[in-house]
């Protein structure tokens, strides 16, 4: 019998009800992904939006219409059962946070798996770079910027960024390291001057938790996977499923396999 | 007859006395190099110093003792005649600025060609990045830092850096681009907080000319080829030849060939 990939083992535990919590730290080295499920009537515009905005919306896989499977990310993978918590949205309103979406699945749904910063954070940690929000045990601070995404069909809105404070030498190394990972947001979009991208106060993030930027550190900003969720919330599609924040889709892809170099 | 490389053509013009000025802009795309010539008694320590400090001292080629030839950089190349202006130093004092050093050449001399920022500046310009000192027609501003080089034998001293002001998005792109060129100083060593590396006043460079850092720009600092010259000036070797600033060794190497990617 083949050795079961670490990601497949996590998904099997979730399907069996043996793993109910957030997925940070599960199956280390495996790519975790953001999940967006939309009716096929919106799927093409959403994919065009992602294609035009690859930094916030790096597409790892797209399902066949009606299919809950993403075989490139895991042979057995079923997006209806393999996440430990979902969010179900109707006309832009959050209506449920179930642990299984088989009962609301439809034949016209298309699933998108989008890259997540967990992958590049692992690469930064392996370089010995301190990530303040992890040290603090908090969520990374995220901000809506004045940088507009490229619109596609009804999808439009501002770029959302995550911020990690770093000493300059670590910031330079982090730019090099994350440049190798375009499939999971890639290089930073900004460094050092938050007011130039419409961020008035670093202490008041729009999502996540504030962290201290100390003397001798620069704030470094990466495009963030919350961008598509914020954009979808404004479009208010009649139906949509996403992962619940922190409860990601764990795949069989390896973070190292996403690296260009 | 083979087509003559652009670098060889420049060297031939210099040897013939037809090109007497600085070499910026000559043989575009060809690697230009810093020249350091030292007695063989010091050559090993200097090479160890360069090996331990590859950012400021990227070695492109080293001659056989007593030989003025660097065949890796040009088949016909002769470092005694192929630069348009030299500096001759005795015990740390500048004693002459000749256009030919055949009459002071010695059997124990070793020539070092070190990478120069002209190569990565070309790559930045091709990305559409404005380099302020070029816009201003001035020399790049350079600063002695509080960062010590790794010593080797008598060679020791502070890292000297060059500074280019850039908007944050250009700074990120410049870090990516110059990371591909480790043979010509590579990625920046610092960004954004000059006081953290011992630079009190950007308006007062130690070498070169000051340039404005405008609102919305960050100062970005690269290790600089002036470092070995500053270090040699402190060691005061009994004899030394260098290029005169701006009068570089033009080689047959192509800038593009130095790129990692």
Layout of strands and helices, then pairs:
The structure is a homodimer.
Chain A: H1 6-15, E1 30-39, H2 40-52, E2 59-62, E3 86-90, E4 93-96, E5 109-115, H3 118-126, H4 132-135, E6 142-148, E7 158-166, H5 168-179, E8 190-191, E9 218-223, H6 226-235, E10 240-243, E11 249-254
Antiparallel strand pairs in A: 1-5, 1-10, 1-11, 2-5, 3-4, 3-10, 6-7, 7-9, 8-9
Walk me through what this model shows.
Chain A is of the alpha+beta class and 261 residues long. Chain A folds into 2 domains: 6-116 and 235-258, PSTPO5379-like (3-Layer(aba) Sandwich), CATH 3.40.1640; 118-228, PSTPO5379-like domain (PSTPO5379-like fold), CATH 3.30.2040.10. Chain A is 22% helix and 25% strand. Chain A contains 6 helices and 11 strands. The first copy, chain A, has helices at residues 6-15, 40-52, 118-126, 132-135, 168-179, 226-235, and strands spanning 30-39, 59-62, 86-90, 93-96, 109-115, 142-148, 158-166, 190-191, 218-223, 240-243, 249-254. In chain A, a hairpin with a 2-residue loop joins strand 3 and strand 4 (93-96). Chains A and B meet through helix 5 and strand 8 of A and helix 5 and strand 8 of B.
Structural class of chain A: alpha+beta
Q: Give the helix level of chain A as a range of percent.
A: 10-25%
Radius of gyration of chain A using CA atoms only = 18 Å
Tell me the number of structural domains of chain A: 2
* SSE order of chain A: HEHEEEEHHEEHEEHEE
Q: Based on the structure given, which CATH architecture of the largest domain in chain A is correct? A: 3-Layer(aba) Sandwich
Number of beta-strand segments of chain A: 11
- Mean pLDDT across the residues of chain A is 94
Largest protein-protein interface: A-B, 19 and 19 residues
Distance, first to last CA of chain A = 32 Å
Total count of helical runs of at least 4 residues of chain A: 6
Under CATH at level 1, the class of the largest domain in chain A stands as Alpha Beta
Low-confidence stretches of chain A: none
